[in-house]
Design brief:
Helix content is 43%, strand content 20%. Strands 3-2-1-6-5-4 form a six-stranded antiparallel β-sheet. Strands 8-10-11-13-12 form a five-stranded mixed β-sheet. Strands 7-9 form a two-stranded antiparallel sheet. The chain has 420 residues and is an alpha+beta fold. It contains ten helices and 15 strands.
């Protein structure tokens, strides 16, 4: 019997929840082991799920996540060409297959260890290989039922969609883990250095107030608290940059476009920036007829805040900071210019690389500009910089006007993008 209408609604709701939970659960530590349980909890009717990942070095399908049966009873599936298993053959061709009743026994014998309890063996099995669009083989999903089961087309469509998405996430988790190993030492050194300074400052002034606050005047105590507050903000910015960078690595940084007035975003960013500095004169030059644009207001503001913070930070002696806006036929260009220390030409092309920093005594993780580039590019724009040592820097980024399309973008050796 086919499920009734209400049952179908419940299934659709449950499956929608699964994809949301899949995104929320993504991390590098507990994602893969908990994957089968997450899927089983949100797919009514399935008794067991096994996630196999392909180990290219060993030419094996390795069970990495199991729910509904014992992982200890499962073994790797060898993919040697001398005697491919049924699962192995379908994995290599990327084809889905379903087995029921007597046909199941031959299949499960290839990945259950001998002696596994007969009453725990399934009566129906669905195998869906996980293959990326470029042909990269990730692994396969096994859905197991204790009783013979017929798969409805809608069910099969969902299982295939889940396999595609899980395959993509599993691939990201695997590649991120590999890249994390290489970057771990650099990241730990960067964070320990950058966090130690504000932590030491916060600890020092807090201890001073706790141990002898009565010896300091109210004005002095207030100054100590202002320093603690400022250093806490520095730590928050470092952590925020790291979190945003992690979202970029996992492909989860989201953009939500809506109609926005660019003047308001710039105005609020400048008002807040003026509160953070008394040394700089911030000037805005914007035409009055900027059209309403489709952009993510929060993310666009984040880019502006980053560029303004850099302008303030890298012109420590103060000076003029100029924000300009130019409206073209297809895009709006915003620029933030300062009169600071400037950047040598050999550094310009690397400013937007993760963890890359121009040598300086100033704090920072080297993550702010890479995050800004990701935000701008996800909105269909470009970002670049022009600078000269001792003459200040100007950062530019564009946002497309509604309906605009662009040719492929290339970069010349100065780091300034231009149409190809």
């Amino acid at each position: 019997m086919r499920p009734n209408h209400r049952h179908g609604q419940v299934q659709r709701r449950s499956r929608s929840i699964f994809f949301r939970k899949l995104v929320e659960a993504f991390d590098l530590d507990g994602f893969l082991p908990g994957l089968a349980s997450l899927l089983l909890d949100n797919v009514p009717g399935v008794d067991s799920i096994v996630v196999f990942l392909y180990d290219d070095s060993k030419k094996q399908l390795v069970p990495v996540s199991v729910s509904g049966c014992s992982k200890e009873g499962l073994r790797e599936i060898n993919l040697d060409h001398g005697g491919l298993s049924v699962v192995g053959k379908f994995f290599e061709t990327g084809r889905t297959f379903l087995r029921a009743k007597k046909q199941v026994a031959k299949v499960v014998a290839q990945f259950f260890y001998p002696g596994y309890p007969e009453d725990c063996r399934p009566e129906s099995l669905l195998c869906i290989p996980m293959v990326l669009n470029d042909g990269t083989r990730i692994g396969c999903l096994l859905f197991l039922w204790a009783h013979p089961n017929s798969i409805f087309l809608k069910d099969l469509a969902f299982f295939k969609r889940a396999a595609r998405m899980i395959g993509l996430f599993a691939y990201k988790a695997k590649t991120l883990a590999q890249s994390q190993e290489k970057k771990h030492s650099n990241l730990v050194c960067t964070l320990s250095h950058e966090l130690r300074t504000p932590l030491t400052c916060i600890k020092g002034y807090a201890t001073t107030l706790l141990n002898g606050g009565e010896h300091w005047s109210p004005d002095e105590q207030r100054e100590f608290l202002k320093i603690i507050d400022s250093e806490t903000n520095t730590m928050k910015e470092l952590i925020d940059d790291l979190l945003e960078s992690s979202m970029i690595e996992s492909g989860l940084l989201s953009i939500r476009k809506e109609p926005v007035l660019l003047q308001r975003i710039v105005g609020k960013a400048v008002d807040d920036a003026r509160l953070r500095t008394a040394k700089h004169n911030i000037v805005v030059s914007m035409p009055a007829d900027i059209p309403v644009m489709e952009a993510d207001p929060g993310r666009t503001r984040q880019v502006l805040d980053n560029l303004l913070d850099n302008a303030i930070k890298y012109s420590p002696d103060g000076g003029l900071i100029v924000i300009q806006c130019n409206v073209g036929e297809k895009e709006v260009t915003l620029s933030v210019a300062d009169e600071g220390m400037g950047i040598a030409p050999e550094h310009l092309n690397r400013l937007f690389e993760k963890f890359y920093r121009v040598k300086s005594e100033l704090a920072g993780t080297g993550l702010g500009l890479p995050v800004a580039r990701e935000i701008v590019e996800k909105q269909g724009g470009r970002i670049w910089a022009r600078s000269a040592p001792g003459k200040g820097s100007t950062f530019y980024f564009t946002l497309p006007l509604a309906g605009a399309s662009y040719p492929d973008i290339d970069e010349d050796q100065s780091g300034v993008p231009h149409p190809a």
